């Protein structure tokens, strides 16, 4: 059992801290936000994440985890301090390391015992060397301190599961002491451990995330081509997936990747390469494809309709993916402002993300249009002229094809997640556009109805 402090209680820090407590270590999580700390002490998770609240309550009650704003008491005698603070993207694509620097300085000024500092945050290659030097430069007491890299691969919505059952643990160290200690900390997880040097560990994180982003953008690129040549991306992906070298995961074409990692990490690696005078052409292409993909459906709809002005537009799904309330880089954030500018009256549904979205787009009149939040997908669809699907929540997938025909004034659906079978939408008489698949155009009457509505209202 080790005494562990964790700096930062976002996705990375809090989940790591809770999982370390769960496997038997003594953990203190540090955050600067007093309200957040008080909530966490009550077992209330500041993030929407399956199983996290239960584990927080259980381990807090058992005295295995505590939360504090007092970093001195947490760091002073810790065997290891894990840094899980944010490294947000700056306007030039580089990572902002100021939170890491603040924590590093606090560590240097407070530790009283030999201590391993472990960077979990995603940082540009070479940062761990600098963090170690920085801590040593500011060190107050005569103790041994070393920095190790231990990047995190959890996905939002399944963060606890991904941590406890990770495919692998990556540790990047520069000494036997650091390597052995990290190995021992992770031993109870009983997972494969890949031990490399610090720079390779830092690079593994970017290389893995960017590869997945590249895979998605590649499928989106092929999907767009499928549409023009009359192929079906889902059949193409299925055919590809039997090749073990390709694999079956992350082949889903859609409305572009979002979230806190892929957009940020692709830009950060591209920036890193650029600083070194190298052009990372594959990743640049992935970023470009993703940017265009986010508004692909909107552009399709613009080609189909005269205007959005005065149309009732159902928006199903606001978060960047299901299982989270996170809106970062979500396709909805690209499309909703475009629709509002065009005068659409939006009826938005999301089972979890609506409150966060309201902070950016309050209910009521907005730009030339308006936005109303509803509690059920059917309420958004009632009397709607057009529907956009941006997130594949179970609640949205559960909407029967026939419901679009029954509820909407004109059943015209743009699905960014390919959640319906073409045959089912065809049978339900829904005019259905998705990604990388042939579109289903229903009877002529529907097209006339849509044009009339648009013409009358604008
Ligand atoms: C990702 C990585 O999976 C994780 O290992 C890393 O640590 C952080 O980044 P996350 O961003 O939480 O996790 O979600 P993920 O499930 O990977 O999805 C990212 C985005 O890609 C979502 O917008 C999702 O909709 C999109 N995606 C994913 C696709 O468009 N197609 C796919 O086949 C898979």
From TrEMBL:
Similarity remark: Belongs to the UDP-glucose/GDP-mannose dehydrogenase family.
Native species: Dehalobacterium formicoaceticum
Listed NCBIfam families: NDP-sugDHase
Keywords in alphabetical order: NAD, Oxidoreductase
Superkingdom of origin: Bacteria
InterPro entries hit by this protein: 6-PGluconate_DH-like_C_sf (IPR008927), NAD(P)-bd_dom_sf (IPR036291), UDP-Glc/GDP-Man (IPR017476), UDP-Glc/GDP-Man_DH_C (IPR014027), UDP-Glc/GDP-Man_DH_C_sf (IPR036220), UDP-Glc/GDP-Man_DH_dimer (IPR014026), UDP-Glc/GDP-Man_DH_N (IPR001732), UDPglc_DH_bac (IPR028357)
Catalyses which reaction(s): UDP-alpha-D-glucose + 2 NAD(+) + H2O = UDP-alpha-D-glucuronate + 2 NADH + 3 H(+)
Pfam families per record: UDPG_MGDP_dh, UDPG_MGDP_dh_C, UDPG_MGDP_dh_N
Enzyme Commission code(s) on record: 1.1.1.22
Residue span(s) of domain UDP-glucose/GDP-mannose dehydrogenase C-terminal: 314-422
EC top class named in words: oxidoreductase
Protein's UniProt name: UDP-glucose 6-dehydrogenase
Protein's pathway: Nucleotide-sugar biosynthesis; UDP-alpha-D-glucuronate biosynthesis; UDP-alpha-D-glucuronate from UDP-alpha-D-glucose: step 1/1
Secretion signal span: none
């Amino acid at each position: 059992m080790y005494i562990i402090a964790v700096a930062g209680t976002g996705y990375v820090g809090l989940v790591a801290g809770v999982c370390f407590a769960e496997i038997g270590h003594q953990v203190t999580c540090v955050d600067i936000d007093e309200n957040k700390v008080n909530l966490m002490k009550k077992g209330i998770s500041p993030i929407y994440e399956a199983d996290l609240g239960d584990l927080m309550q259980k381990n807090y009650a058992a005295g295995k985890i505590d939360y504090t704003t007092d970093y001195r008491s947490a760091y002073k005698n810790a065997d290891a301090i894990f840094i899980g603070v944010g490294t947000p993207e700056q306007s030039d694509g580089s990572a902002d390391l100021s939170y890491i620097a603040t924590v590093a300085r606090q560590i240097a000024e407070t530790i009283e015992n030999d201590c391993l500092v472990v960077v979990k945050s995603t940082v540009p290659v070479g940062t761990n060397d600098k963090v170690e030097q920085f801590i040593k430069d500011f060190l107050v007491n005569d103790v041994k301190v070393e920095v190790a890299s231990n990047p995190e691969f959890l996905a939002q919505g399944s963060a606890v599961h991904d941590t406890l059952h990770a495919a692998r643990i990556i540790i990047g160290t520069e000494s036997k002491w650091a390597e052995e200690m990290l190995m021992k900390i992770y031993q109870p997880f009983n997972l494969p451990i890949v031990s490399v040097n610090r720079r390779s560990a830092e690079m593994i994180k970017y290389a893995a995330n960017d590869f997945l982003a590249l895979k998605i953008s590649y499928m989106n690129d092929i999907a767009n081509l499928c549409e023009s040549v009359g192929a079906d991306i889902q059949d193409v992906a299925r055919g590809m997936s039997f090749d073990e070298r390709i694999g079956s995961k992350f082949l889903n074409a859609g409305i572009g990747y979002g979230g806190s990692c892929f957009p940020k990490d692709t830009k950060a690696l591209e920036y890193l390469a650029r600083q070194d005078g190298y052009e990372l052409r594959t990743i640049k292409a992935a970023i470009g494809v993703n940017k265009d993909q986010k508004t692909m459906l909107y552009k399709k709809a613009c080609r189909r309709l005269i205007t959005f002005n005065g149309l009732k537009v159902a928006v199903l799904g606001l978060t960047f993916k299901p299982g989270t309330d996170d809106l970062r880089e979500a396709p909805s954030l690209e499309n909703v402002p475009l629709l509002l500018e065009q005068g659409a009256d939006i009826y938005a549904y999301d089972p979890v993300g609506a409150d966060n979205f309201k902070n950016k787009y309050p209910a009521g009149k907005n730009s030339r249009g308006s936005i109303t939040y509803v509690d059920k997908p059917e309420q958004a669809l009632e009397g709607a002229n057009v529907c956009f699907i941006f997130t594949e929540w179970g609640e949205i997938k559960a909407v029967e094809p026939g419901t679009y025909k029954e509820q909407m004034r004109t059943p015209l659906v743009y699905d960014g997640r390919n959640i319906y079978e073409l045959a089912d939408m065809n049978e339900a008489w829904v005019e259905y556009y998705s990604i990388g698949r042939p579109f289903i155009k229903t009877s002529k009457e529907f097209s006339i109805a849509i044009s009339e509505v648009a013409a009358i209202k604008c």
